[in-house]
Specification:
mainly alpha, Cytochrome Bc1 Complex, Chain D, domain 2, two-stranded antiparallel sheet, two-stranded antiparallel ribbon, 9 helices, 4 strands, binds heme C
Length: about 270
Amino acid sequence: MFKKTILGVLALAAFALGGATVQAADEYPHTDQQDWSFAGVFGTYDQNQLRRGFQVYREVCSSCHALEYISFRNLAEEGGPHYSEDQVRALAAEYTVVDEMADGGEREGVPADRWPHPFPSEQIAAEANGGKAPPDLSLMAKARGIHMDFPWWVFNYFTAYQEAGADYIYNLLVSYEEPPAGEELDAGLHYNSYYSGHAIAMAAPLADGIVSYADEATPETVEQYSRDVAAFLQWTADPHMVSRKSTGFMVILFLIGLSILMYLVKRRIWRDAH
Ligand code: HEC
């Protein structure tokens, strides 16, 4: 029985491997997977990186992209960027939010407000961006993933790989290039070797040096900005990832303990039965 199972698994592996090699190798772009602090069973978000990522989002991406599911006060949460209550209050007050109850329909932001939309409507957002409205980024890291050939994705179950969204965003942001000779792009589209179809309506948003980090030791490069903002967007999409992973780990430990106990109980109960 056991032998049969092993043989079955091997046959399946051989079949799938064969299938994977037949597939055109360049059908999917290569993903440069990053070493994320939040990777693995014991990974946690790096507070400094989340703060830098938020700074990149705020200074660059927020002019086009909303963060619909994030309120200012979320930025004070432990495990996240963890700003102080006062910092969040001051940050919110820098923004004007739409509020029908307020005099004139607008008022100063407070921590409970959602992140304000950069455009008054989807239509205006599309008109300002060559016909494509910039999508909301709060859940983007959950909405995108990367392609992996068999057998690599099988290992994801063991390494608790959940960083595909961050890897996608990083690779997208660092893959703007000149279009290959002879390839014409429609007006308003930009060549990105990682984006599916290679023609994206978002112009390269980052360039070396455009965001000044407080910590001088951190490089101010497109790669670093991309990694930081991708980590921040992973947090906005999955702020409870860390506690979920540690709960999962405790549950597995408990189940292993329970299995051993049940095995011993079974041996004791059946001790005299032959
Ligand atoms: C000038 C406006 C503008 C800025 C600034 C901008 N974007 Fe975009 N972004 C867009 C538009 C427009 C699209 C839709 C592209 C499309 O569908 O072709 C988009 C799409 C995206 C997507 C989705 C790509 C996909 O797979 O569909 C991501 C992720 C993204 N932007 C991240 C960012 C990040 C991170 C920043 C800041 C570093 C940023 N954007 C800055 C306009 C912008």
